[in-house]
Amino acid sequence: MNRHQSNSVRKTFLNSSIFLRVAASVVFIPCFIIITNTGGYHFLLLIDAVIFVGMWEFYRMMEAKGIRPYKMIGILCSLVLSWYVFFRNGVYANLFLTLVLVTLMCLELTRKETKMAVNHIAITVLGVIYIGFLGSHLIMLREFPLAINLDYGMGSSFVFLAFIVTWAGDTGAYIVGSAVGKRPLIPRISKKKTKEGSIGGLMFSIGAALVAKETFADYLGLWQALTLGFLAGVLGQLGDLFESLIKRDVETKDASEMIPGHGGILDRFDSLLFTSPIIYYFIKFVVFK
């Protein structure tokens, strides 16, 4: 192989999706572990960054459909909501959300056009609920030990549990679907997702929950781990399908190109937006009832 061919091969590898995925993971995962273990404001700001970018991606996709959401209000509302969650001030959060909703409806009265008025308001609110509220459950998981007088460090294990069972499901669905997937799961939403991949993802999520139980999540019983893995496996795939539905509607492949090789924040956290709430409530009402 001559120098020109060698350089061509090297360039192809460096530009490959796999290399970009690995490089992004090598940077993100250690930082994520350190910040999650630290907790407090550091973890709050990390999730706020995820919410901010996710909201921006969501509203940008909606604008491609001709909808004009109130982006700044929606993003600000989501960030303020995450801080209310962090300080556990639910009453004030309800007051804030009420004021925001009334403000949105009043602002729509000032626009010259009346076409799609309901869509503008509804999409703004959907972004807050879908990304801001659901995403804030990651903060609730990290801060949960303070609510029931547990060791604060346990909060990191709750977050790691959510990430591991969710991303194990994503990985399992991809591996099994790529290897033996033949029957489309819901072809009108995604032609690549298969029933075989769905079953594989579910098994991987359950397996990850069992591994977590035997390593760092010893507060889980056997049946609790099996149930949690199953619920996370199902909801993780529903979260992935919901984002695929959004992208199919706006005719785009990725939410953005924020993360090299991975797409956008929503492409990486879509499943977690659905699994983190169920894991939080499962831990709260079943494990530590």
Describe the protein:
Helix 7 runs parallel beside helix 11 and helix 10 runs antiparallel to helix 11. This protein is globular. By secondary structure, the chain is mainly alpha-helical. It has two domains: 95 residues; 140 residues, no CATH class. The termini are far apart. 78% of the residues lie in helices and 3% in strands. A two-stranded antiparallel sheet has the order 1-2.
The order of strands across the largest sheet is 1-2
Question: What is the residue-averaged pLDDT?
Answer: 88
Number of helices: 11
Morphology: globular
**β-sheet strand percentage:** under 5%
| Largest sheet entry | 2 strands, antiparallel
The value of Rg in angstroms is 20 Å
Distance between the termini: 65 Å
Derived from helix and strand composition plus strand pairing, the structural class reads mainly alpha
State the share of residues found in helices, binned by percent. Answer: over 70%
Q: What are the segments in which pLDDT stays under 50 over at least 5 consecutive residues?
A: 1-6, 9-15
Tell me the domain tally: 2
Tally of strands: 2
Order of helices and strands: HHHHHHHHEEHHH
